[in-house]
Amino acid sequence: MVTSSQLSPRGDFRTSDSSIVRGIAERDIKQSCILIVDDEPLNIEVVRRYLELGGYRNLISSDHAGQALPLIGLNRPDVVLLDIHMPEVNGLDILAAVRSDESLCRTPVIILTGSSDPETKLVALQAGATDLLQKPVHSEELLARLGNVLRVKAYQDRLCQHSEELEEAVRRRTAELEASRLDVIHCLARAAEFRDDDTGQHVIRVGRYARVIAQQLGFSNERLNILEPAAQLHDVGKIGIADSILLKPGKLTPEEYELMQKHCGFGKKIADRVSDHEEQFLRRHTDIGARIMNASSSPILELARRIALTHHERWDGSGYPLGLAGEDIPLEGRITAVADVFDALSSKRPYKPAFPLQKCFKIMEEGRGNQFDPIVLDAFFTCRDEIIQIQIDSADTD
Hints:
- The chain is mostly helical.
- The protein folds into 2 domains: 4-168, Rossmann fold (3-Layer(aba) Sandwich); 194-393, Hypothetical protein af1432 (Orthogonal Bundle).
- The chain is built from 17 helices and 5 strands.
- The chain has a 5-stranded parallel β-sheet with strand order 2-1-3-4-5, sandwiched between helices.
- Strand 3 (79-83), helix 4 and strand 4 (109-113) form a beta-alpha-beta unit.
- It starts with 16 loop residues before the first helix and ends in a 5-residue tail after the last helix.
- The model is unreliable at 1-15, 20-26 and 251-275 (pLDDT under 50).
């Protein structure tokens, strides 16, 4: 629950009990809706007359107890004046039904009873009666007690309304902050990607591919909303890699270029195109990315740290930098690995053209059980149509 002490000092969402009380003082409680339920029409007429003399006009009444609950549900009265002993339904049963209904339980109920039995009064109060008056009702006492009950009801209504307004303001501001945070994450991801991708669409596609795969694997919406931006940060460690390593197409020999075309989607083999010294630096990008992400306790950045560290691990244990194998590799890292390799295969790169889709899917299948988790790869192929649509929607443009 939000409290006034947590809100802006500018006063736009701050309140106090005194301001609410002043608001209630301005409200005409005489317009309150009052329901009277009594099996004796004469009793109803007397009470109505007292209320009308007291300035109340919004009155509803019934001498059939069986109509009480439907009338309460339909009219949502501000207060119910209820008899106890009635032939159709006992007033205490009506009271119990009101108190057990979440949408009605806050409705004040004043019991009007002809019984002088203290036990009856105690049972009524214990059942949740707001107040109790004995018949014959004294007009001034009725108006005084009714006024007090209505003021308390109005005060509670204003508190609930104000609380809802504050909660909505918090939800709105939280959504704005979340949107801003995702913008920053996306900018960071694209900043890394722009090092070797002029469009920056790679990170968007990988995030979307990862989401579709994870959805097929049964991830909840909450997990999907964390995974997609986290997967976009999979290569954030490129920020720490020299351009001479990232932007190397001019230095490739024809043999290296041919090898790159054939194995570009397979982590370690793609890295094999460079010298042993350069390969060690290139492998460092996963560790650099993980350390960048380690600076925050955000769920997105915490997951991004694991993905940055493990998306080049291989199912057979021959990946880098940790040499993890099988289910020791975090599932999100295994998902991002599939998404990342497919996008590398199907996109133009400085060292290769975009491969045709059939060739991409064939190479992906060749990675089953050695580079890729078979279950994750099955989910990827199951979502083939969605994957292709994402590729179309987020295609690179010159």
